[in-house]
Amino acid sequence: MKPNVLIGSSPEKCVTTHPQCSKAVGDCLWQAGAGVYYGDSPAFGKAELNMRIAGLKRVGDDMGFSLADFDAGRGQSAIL
């Protein structure tokens, strides 16, 4: 999944994909049998920190999804 995380911001500010939206989509994918990874390449800072601030990391952790660092690029370890 690729939620929109321009920069870490609380869900109430509507700058990022809302965590409940991410949870609903992730649940649908998981129930369909997909292995779920999520990530983005924020405009500022590291993906993990921004995902944490936006509340998306908690959803991913709670659901057992793996966070992918899109900044790592191809051929590099992209899973955090």
Helix content: 25-40%
Total number of helices: 3
Low-confidence stretches: 74-78
User: Nearest-angstrom radius of gyration?
Assistant: 12 Å
Label the structural class. alpha+beta
Q: What spatial form do the alpha-carbon principal axes imply?
A: globular
Beta-strand level of the residues, as a percent range? 5-15%
Total strands: the figure is: 2
Q: Tell me the span between the first and last alpha carbons.
A: 15 Å
> What order do the helices and strands follow?
HEHHE
Strand order across the largest sheet: 1-2
Largest sheet: 2 strands, parallel
Please give the structural blueprint.
Blueprint: H1 19-31, E1 37-40, H2 47-54, H3 56-63, E2 66-69
Parallel strand pairs: 1-2
Which key features would you list for this structure?
80 residues, alpha+beta, two-stranded parallel ribbon, 36% helix
Brief overview:
With 80 residues, the chain is an alpha+beta fold. It is built from 3 helices and 2 strands, in the order H-E-H-H-E.
Would you kindly provide a written description of the structure presented here, covering whatever features stand out?
This protein is α+β, with helices and mostly antiparallel strands and about 80 residues long. Helices cover about 35% and strands about 10% of the residues. It is built from 3 helices and 2 strands; from the N terminus they run H-E-H-H-E. The chain has helices spanning about 20-30, 45-55, 55-65, and strands at about 35-40, 65-70. It has a two-stranded parallel sheet with strand order 1-2. The longest helix is centred in the first third of the chain and has 13 residues, at about 20-30.
